[in-house]
Amino acid sequence: MQESKYLVANERDALWGLTVSTVGYDKLNPGDPYPTRGHAGGYYFDVTRGRTLDEYQMLYLLDGEGVFCSDHMKDHPIKAGDIFLLFPNEWHTYHPLASSRWESYWIGYRGKNMDDRVEHGFLSPEKPIYHVGYCPEIISLYESAMQVAKREEAYSQQSLAGIVNNLIGTMYARERNIILSRDQDKVDIINKARLMIRERLESRITIQEIADQLGMGYSNFRKLFKEFTGISPALYQQELRLQRARELLSSTPISIKEIAYRLNFDSPDYFSSKFKAKVGCKPSEYREKMG
């Protein structure tokens, strides 16, 4: 069983940063021929010879087992709950095991948004497989993409681009949370640390003191915190203080000097420079604009 839709994007669609070329669903019983028939020209391939595409694809294996192979990864097993990515100009092949069922979704896309993510190391052909498990949210996103593609209403490319961005973000975050949650003690430490930082924005508590209270050395705590959140604990604390500063500037008459010291910035000038770097204007300008 196969459902698929192939789409056309115009030059203006491409300026959006991401366009979708194909979306579909496969379901096979053990021993059924693979790939299924009905693919558009350039998409069907011989699994022994593989293929190269000029686009990205994201495939989610709901059921079954198989093998994936590419220029960067040789004969790697894939299983239910895996998402595997295909990259432009990267030779690849994949197929179910002869004795296995196979149920999968796919979506194909191209554009500068994805190129930038690869360039900055968020996605790489060296790591094409992500294990996300059974995820109703991801299934729902694929189903939504299929419905949008089938209707092919005006500006459907922009809607599909949003779905792809949601899929990629959900995949990326879910896999990392699965990995991190394997050590629940560490997860609990970081959650406790974040709560301590949030609850003490207007105190002079330092990151060293938080690490001490959690029974960790500063270096190990900083490394663990950054692995979990993507930023250092000191930057996390500063970002929350700047968020709180915006609230105080827009909703209270408290002076800028008082806000700076209340949120434990070294001086009003230091607070102003950090605020401008983050928000794009001085605290006084922000207050005037929000007033």
User: What portion of the residues fall into strands of 2 or more residues?
Assistant: 15-25%
Q: Which spans of ≥5 residues are poorly predicted at pLDDT below 50?
A: none
Number of strands: 8
Percent helix: 40-55%
Q: Please state the CA-atom Rg, rounded to the nearest Å.
A: 24 Å
Work out the helix count: 11
Main β sheet profile: 8 strands, antiparallel
Distance between the termini: 60 Å
Shape: elongated
What do the pLDDT scores average to? 94
Characterize the structure shown.
The protein has 291 residues and is of the alpha+beta class. 46% of the residues lie in helices and 19% in strands. It has eleven helices and eight strands. It has helices at 11-14, 112-119, 136-151, 156-180, 184-199, 207-213, 218-229, 233-251, 256-262, 268-279, 283-290; strands at 2-6, 19-28, 56-70, 76-79, 82-86, 92-96, 102-110, 129-131. Strands 1, 2, 3, 4, 5, 6, 7 and 8 form an eight-stranded antiparallel beta sheet that branches. Strand 3 (56-70) and strand 4 form a beta hairpin. The longest helix is centred in the middle third of the chain and has 25 residues, at 156-180. The radius of gyration is 24 Å and the shape is elongated. The mean pLDDT is 94.
